[in-house]
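Input sequence (562 aa), recorded before submission:
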Amino acid sequence: MPESHEANDNVLSFDLTEQPWIGVLQEDGEQTELSLREVFEQAGRVHRLAADLATQEFALLRLLLAVAHDALDGPRDLEHWARLWDDPQCFDGVTAYLDTHRSRFDLFDRRAPFFQTAQLRTAKDEVSSLNRIVADVPNGEPFFSARLPAVDRLGFAEAARWVVHTHAYDTSGIKSGVVGDARAKGGKVYPLGVGWAGNLGGVYVEGANLRETLLLNLVAFDTAGLTFKNEDRPAWRREPSGPGGAERAPDGVRDLYTWQSRRLRLHADAEGVHGVVLGYGDPLTARNMHTREPMTAWRRSPAQEKKHGEPLIYLPREHEPERSAWRGLASLIADRTQQPQDSEGVAAYLRPAILDWTARLVTRRVLPRGFLVRARIAGSVYGTQQSVVDEVVDDRLTMAVVLLHEQDREYARQAMDAVEDAHQAVTALGDLATDLERAAGSDNDSRRTTARDRAFGALEGPYRAWLAALGEADDPLIERDRWKAEVHATVAGLGAQMIADSGAAAWQGRTVPAKHGSVWLNSALADQWFRARLRKCLGRPFPSDPPSAPEATGQPSSKVHA
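Predicted structure, token format:
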């Protein structure tokens, strides 16, 4: 555990600007912890953040971005950003900035402890278990915890990380009613929603090292579609939060990245942190926050439009844990012109503004076309009225920035259509599984689900490799044809194995209902239909495609019975 500093009057101090607490992965593969000062000094030699959870990495990155935005007072525009990108010492000014605001980064400062409220207490002076802030210990399910049965004590460094994470991703549910919070009733505050980042399908861009990652996500203040006010500043440059919460709109990303969605106070001694007081803080609605929050995709919500009587409402587009990032590529790279639109030309979805920013960098040729980035996604999936964390989503997708080019959209179009190729081929394989079950006299739909999952798993690695190389191709249409051939070979091979394993009952077959009358369905006919479906969705015949496959109508004339 890092050494704490104890003054003569026995007041604890843990200076986040000097003490190591942020986990990082060095370029040589070593994992270590750095102070805030060291993170910026060594950013060019650090591979990436390495926290306890993907959501913690997301929350810590946003904290670092708030520091960088405020210390640099920018970037003001594209030219300012380009100068930072070209300057290996671009973060040198952060050191003096941290010195200026050092007291606000002390975890146990008397007046304004970092991301906490001094003297926060309940009417009965209850102190809760640290399970309340450690996200890998779901309340009520200790048998699934890596810290069975509870968190009794944390070191100062780990406690600091969980404080940042709590403001971002804390669950909803009933919280302690702290003294001074007008919302408290009977010593409790009833559910007010999860921490701000918990509403998001978090997205950010990773570069080759932490310096590149910080800069690639450092959005210029002149970015169209995003709101930046002169009053925008992070939490440590505002008055310390008192109990309760204030309802207001964030002034910009510095404000939003450090949003105080909770009120909390750590209880600690010289050996570590042993308890917490946790209550609700500043509420923030997710409706139409797309002009302020750049690190998530958005979806239009007709239900919310009807409920609130507003013509247009966008909500954050959350991640689906069962879908890998490559299968949701369109939500990441498709701009408004490539998204589904209604009759009035209003987009059903908006891609993350952080990727609009990256698109601006490549379109204006600040970044070269072949420059590779990783779109990183992170998010929490909540259960039981958002009172517990069911799952954490974590994925990466490497791609060339040319896919985001605003004038050259052909690469993005072929990348998205290639995902659709995979979806249609996997659907054909699922239909084969269903047909084989019907031929055997079964209606077990789980075989279809298993077949689809297996096919998506088999195509995931090849697609990621194909996408990473797409930016170097001279002709994306030719690369798409190559992808179709790979999909055909992979899915046809899985289908052949399914037919071989289908058993005697499916080989013999039986009469099943068809569109007109009935049909004798066996594994041989199921195979013919499958090959025809693959040909229909992938186009021209491939080497693994036999020449005589009838259309998949479900009623070949020689097999139909009246």
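Checked by second reader. The CA atoms of residues 432 and 527 lie 7 Å apart.
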